[in-house]
Amino acid sequence: MFDFQGYLWMLPTGLQLTLLVGLCALVVAMVLGLLGAWAKLSHNWIARRAADTYTTVIRGVPELLLILLVYYGVPTLIQDVLEGFGYDIVIDINPFIAGVMTLGFIYGAFSTEVFRGAILAVPKGQIEAAYAAGMSRPMMVRRVLLPQVWRFALPGLGNVWMVLIKATALISVIQLPELMRNSDIAARAVRLPFTFYFAASLIYLGITIVSMIGQQRIETWARRGVRSG
Amino acid sequence: MEIIWQSLPRLLEGAWLTVHITALSVVMGLLLAVPLALLRVSRNPLFWTPAYGYIFYFRGTPLLVQIFLIYYGSGQFQTELDALGLWVFFRQAYFCAALTLTLNTAGYTAEILRGAIQAVPHGEIEAARASGMSGWLLYRRIILPKAFRLALPAYSNEVVFLFQATSLVSIISLMDLTGVARVIAARSFAFYQLYITAGVIYLIITYGILFIFKKVEFRLSGHLRDRKDTVLAVDGVPVR
Known about the structure:
Number of domains of chain B: 1
Number of strands of chain B: 2
Helix content of chain B: over 70%
Helix content of chain A: over 70%
Order of helices and strands of chain A: HHHHHHHH
Structural class of chain A: mainly alpha
CATH topology of chain A: MetI-like fold
Number of strands of chain A: 0
Number of helices of chain B: 10
Low-confidence stretches of chain B: none
CATH superfamily of chain B: MetI-like
Shape of chain B: flat
Oligomer: heterodimer
Largest interface: A-B, 40 and 42 residues
Largest sheet of chain A: none
């Protein structure tokens, strides 16, 4: 059953792209998450409302539909709008960019909640103490808030990463040759669907296991200065 | 705009498939998850290791891979499945989709239930044991009802995730809400109009599900709320 008929090389090649898409999307998600958390906690009601709408919509719409919307819908939307102004152009989005943007956008909403919780977890007294010691707001954010927010956010961000890396499989529907798409091509070429999908699932499982170990290590490292017991 | 109105009936038909495949998988998944969670909290390694492996596999791999594994993967064993008389089921996309969603949500739900079972206060279990309950009776009367209540918020999230995950069945050619939107969009080139309409329908149903769970949670937590007739609030601070 585990005769890959010379197509095994497609899996590691796909894995590379899966990890690349995942990591890029994670970076986008974290940037959006910090921005979103800042907006949710801001005194400006427009920012608050915008961030609330963002997380509400993302939570209510399936990832697959959002990927299709970004990849097929957004270019046609832009074309239609430009046509209204008298321009006639054709826009194609690169599947890699569409995938990274969509996943980053989706998981940005989830990390918004993670960062919001982490910011609220920093004791208020410390922030007041920072101001009392004469720090300006940016300095307080840099010296007191962010170093602790990272630590509080780590468990949540770990979860976001694990869900995100599995969601990269959905990018295969827009033909990006990542792990899922490559195992699909190989499975069809040699008519061994079970063999290839099962192998792919074990690779995803491996990513999950490595991520879990990595998460534990990073959390221990981040806690090194914290008294316990 | 016109294309949206024209395709709305077909989109709603698709939404109906989405809703009933979700409902079917939620019910079957829960039925599978309860014994799975009980095996998982057992101290006997013969029981908990297989349950742990099952939960780990289904939570650690993408749903899309699972769907492909069951729908396309079963084709590799066509002769064996045919001999067992099971091929008639595995041939159908609907069966495979519902089966995968059930197995998948059972894994996630079992993990939620495990956490909830382990979160039941020791005092309640000790009190039940002191009044002579043990084994199945203890589970049926004390642990499981409490665990279900504790699990409800996390479980409502799981149901919402499953509801949205059903959009993946469109990839194996089922005509659910996403499937219908994809087909009409590909024919009419009205991509964003249809995907946004489908998104709005998903959004409405999602918050409908969350609303129902809120109501259920409220009903089930009646004994934990302050009684209205004995509580007065002064500037938001309750006074008894």
